[in-house]
Amino acid sequence: MSVYTTEIASDKIPSDNVIHQRLLSAYHQAKPYIKGDLLELGCGEGRGVELLAPLADSYVGIDKIKPVVEDLEKKFPDYKFMSGVFPPFPFEDDSFDTIITFQVIEHLKDDEGFIKEIHRVLKPGGKALITTPNIKMTLSRNPWHEREYTGDELKALCEKYFDKVDMKGIAGSEKVLEYHERNRASVQRIMRFDIFDLQHKLPAGLLRIPYDILNRMNRNKLRETDDELVKSITVQDFNLMDQDEQNLDLFCLLSK
Questions:
Q1: How far apart are CA 131 and CA 184, in angstroms?
Q2: Strands, E, within the chain: which ranges?
Q3: pLDDT digits 0-9 by tens, 51-102
Q4: Which residue segments constitute the domains of the chain, with CATH numbers given?
Q5: Distance between alpha carbon 127 and the CA centroid of its chain, in Å?
Q6: The pTM is what?
Q7: From CA 110, how far away is CA 115, in angstroms rounded?
């Protein structure tokens, strides 16, 4: 079974460009907060390593997909990468000045344990940054996600362990919102065949393969319909904003 799904948007697949730029934007927004020893939880293919690691004294990336980690070790020999499933984390208390984890928490069964572990390994005075999709803007059930959150839900979860939680969001430009609405219309056309609402009734494991197939077909169709729109969207089309239901992603800043 391939480790790659439509959950891992590629900068090399033209139809993935909008998703890639959206994910990359979080790393750009994180730059002012990076200092000291940096930990990335769920580093994936290393989308932001070149951008953020040079700003830190040290960088450690951990991800569950071993082949991806092995590729990163070859590509970035100056930084440390580990493969493993979390939580818990294989680190001592108070180990990192900054922790980033982008589009990860929605995949984890033990989300509260995840936040608790972030607090444990973060140094006093340190900061952690979390992004995750805003459920208010979700177009259909994603069977790769354990759950999704509203801003208030994620904030309440984090406040169980952090005294200071600043909830913001990643918002899109007019071009991004145009693409989002075209995507919504396309998804709704597909979902009209789901007359028994199977997307919410079937186990996630049964939905992953058809979800990936339809998701890839949909992205390709959106590109074919308006390739110029898809190509024209860049990381500058995404901005950090105050908490709002219209934000595409939640952006949570935790301070210890």
A1: 22
A2: 37-41, 58-63, 80-83, 96-102, 122-133, 164-172, 238-242, 249-255
A3: 999 999 999 999 999 999 999 999 999 999 999 999 999 999 999 999 999 9
A4: 14-255 (3.40.50.150)
A5: 18
A6: 0.93
A7: 9
